[in-house]
Amino acid sequence: MNYNRNESINNARALLSRYRRNFLLAGDKFEPSLTVKYTSQPKATTRVNAVEEYVSRKTDAEQYLIKVNSALSRMSKVRRKVIFLKYVDVEELTNAEISKEMFIAERTLRRELNKALYDFAFSYDGGVLLSEQK
Question: Is residue 45 one of the residues assigned to a domain?
Answer without folding.
Answer: yes
